[in-house]
Each structure stands twice: as structure tokens, then as C-alpha cells.
Design a protein that fits this description.
The chain is α+β, with helices and mostly antiparallel strands and 176 residues long. It has 4 helices and 6 strands, in the order E-E-H-H-H-E-E-E-E-H. The chain is 34% helix and 16% strand.
Length: 176
């Protein structure tokens, strides 16, 4: 939208206005051809097209004269063939799946903090301590837990809700 300044009141008005809306000064009619005139300089899109064409030509010429780089001799790492590597890999999977099961059993999964976690050798469950927010929004303090890695395996937390403290202690001593 083109604008101009009124010579009487110095207010900004539209360029095609016939009367100033502030001081009511009348302006002579402006020919329509002068309102839609474009600058005579080279349009921006032509300049951008020229630059883009030069860049494409440069990259094509450079790729013709460039020698392909020799690939370094990198031997692939051997797959975890060692028994210890498999055991560590299995432990990581059990830990991940058991933590998912544990999170699913909490009221506020995002607030879960664990410590002293471990996977007993050859087991498909995780033992440790968990702290999370309760239904009132407060942290409950760390409680021992045993979480199964497979779906359907139970999650036992030593908070007295599912198992009695005596039963949980017996389970903890046997499993962890």
C-alpha cells in the first residue's frame, strides 16, 4: 500500500486519496499508470536465478574433475560372540523392560527415581529401590522393589500395599 504525506497537516494518508481525511484538503486525481509503476532495475528473482545457475554449473564441473575418495579399510566389529557380552546385552534388555513395567505400575511415572538397581545373574527381573510421587503429589521416600521384565510379570514394591512386609522380605531374600 502506497502512502504520502499531506502538505497542509503533515499526516500520512494513502497515495491514491483524493481528500485528506484530517484537514479535508483536496488533491488532483493521480493517473492510474503512475501508481502501479515498478522500478526499472533488474528483478530480484532474475538475480537469484542467475546465482543458482552458477552454483549448479560449478558443482557439476567440480564433480567431473574430482577423484573419488578411497574408502578406508574398516573391519566391522564382531557380533557379541563372547558369553560375557551376551550376558551384558541380556541384562540391559531386562533392565529396560523391567523399568517400563515399574513405571506402568506407578501413579506418576514421570517422577520415578531408582537407585541400587541390579539384575541377578540369569534372572528376568530387576531389584532395587524406587522413589516416586504418590496420589497427593508428595514423594514417598525410597522403597525396595522387584519388577519383572516380561509383560504380565508382577511388580512388587515394599510399601505394604500388595504384600505384607514379612512376605516381601522373604521374596527379596530369595530373589535378590
Amino acid at each position: 500500500m502506497a502512502i504520502k504525506k499531506c502538505p497542509d497537516c503533515a499526516e500520512i494518508i494513502q497515495a491514491d486519496a483524493r481528500i485528506c481525511r484530517f484537514c479535508r484538503r483536496e488533491f488532483p486525481p493521480v493517473p492510474a499508470a503512475t501508481l502501479s509503476q515498478r522500478p526499472t532495475s533488474t528483478p530480484t528473482w532474475k538475480v537469484l536465478l542467475l546465482i543458482f545457475g552458477v552454483l549448479i554449473a560449478y558443482s557439476v564441473i567440480k564433480s567431473r574433475f574430482e577423484q573419488p575418495a578411497a574408502e578406508p579399510d574398516v573391519k566391522p566389529k564382531p557380533v557379541a560372540s563372547d558369553e560375557r557380552d551376551r550376558e551384558v546385552s541380556n541384562e540391559a534388555k531386562v533392565r529396560l523392560l523391567a523399568e517400563r513395567q515399574l513405571k506402568a505400575s506407578l501413579r506418576d511415572p514421570g517422577s520415578m527415581e531408582t537407585r541400587n538397581t541390579r539384575v541377578p545373574p540369569g534372572a528376568a527381573f530387576l531389584c532395587g529401590e524406587v522413589n516416586a510421587r504418590n496420589g497427593f503429589g508428595g514423594k514417598t521416600g525410597y522403597h525396595r522393589f522387584i519388577a519383572g521384565a516380561l509383560s504380565g510379570m508382577p511388580v512388587a514394591i515394599d510399601d505394604g500395599s500388595a504384600l505384607s512386609p514379612k512376605d516381601f522380605e522373604a521374596l527379596w531374600q530369595k530373589a535378590c
